[in-house]
Amino acid sequence: MNRLHPRRTLALLLGPGVVFLLFFFAAPLLFVLIESLRVPDTGVTLSRYGEVITDDQFAAVYLRTLRIALIVTPLAVLLSYPSAYLLSRLPHGRKSILMSLVILPLMTSPVARTYAWIVMLGRQGIVNKTIQALGIASEPVRMMYTEGAIIVGLLQLFLPIMVLTLVSAMENVPEEVEEAALSLGSSRFDAFFRVIVPLSFEGLIMGVTLVFTGCITAYVTPAILGGSRVLTLSTLMRQEALVLMNWEAATVIAVIMVVTTLILYNGLRLFRPREA
User: Residue 4: left if φ>0, alpha if ψ -120 to 50, beta else—which one?
Assistant: First the structure.
């Protein structure tokens, strides 16, 4: 019986996935890029990018989107690392139960999860009633349609993703490595930052990339918790395309979002620990 060459076998296995990504991911992105550069009767030009980038509203929205992502991502890392470390070291039975609780929010619609924050942060919500009951404020505090509301919503939305990526990375770190560091005189704090963190850095890069790009491209949470008062790139793009019917500006914003995420990903990879 003839056996397939390893390269041919690899091509057959990768072929369907590569074709799918080229057709449904790369091709639409290429189309958007071409449309952002093409101007009727003029040809290829960067004039649209100049118009969008120099617009004061776009600059404010772009900086706000980056600021929100730069706040949510470190918070997700700080909250996820201890949890992921604990989960990776638990026995299989207890780990399965707790991992199910981590995955459970991902099985709920982002729309439903985001609307739940209205019940919490509204003028008559649980948080405001608690603040008034404790005498901290005499009147309801405006929490909805603020950057803070978007930050809380996005943190709750992407925290499970960060935990899962870190758990996956830490499970590949042998416990013997940490025990060796402890036996050589390191404290658990030093062993965590000098052994666990460097060896799980690939998972950290992946988690940070997913959370940061998710914050930049998220639409449902900023649209519901930020409304038209606090625009982000995604809600601005929707406004330009469907409200103002300015599809040219919307395509430019889409390309800028993709380029921003690519720059972030490649920048983070520069900080990978070098192999000896």
Answer: beta
Q: Which CATH superfamily is domain 49-269 in?
A: MetI-like (1.10.3720.10)
Instruction: Indicate the domain borders of the chain.
Output: 49-269
**What's the helix, strand, coil split of the chain in %, to 5?**
75, 0, 20
Could you say which DSSP state residue 39 is in?
E
Nearest Cα residue to 229 out of 150, 136, 119, 175 = 150
Whole-angstrom distance, CA of residue 110 vs CA of residue 88 = 27
Residue with the two structure tokens 């709920």 = 108
Q: Is the pTM of this model over 0.70?
A: yes
Burial class, 39, CB count within 10 angstroms (exposed 0-12 / middle 13-18 / buried 19+)? middle
Residues in the chain: 276
User: 80-108 pLDDT, tens per residue?
Assistant: 998 998 888 888 788 888 888 888 888 88
Maximum C-alpha span of the chain? 83
Q: Look at residue 276 in the predicted model and tell me its pLDDT.
A: 44
Which region among 30-34, 145-149, 222-226 has the lowest average model confidence (pLDDT)? 30-34
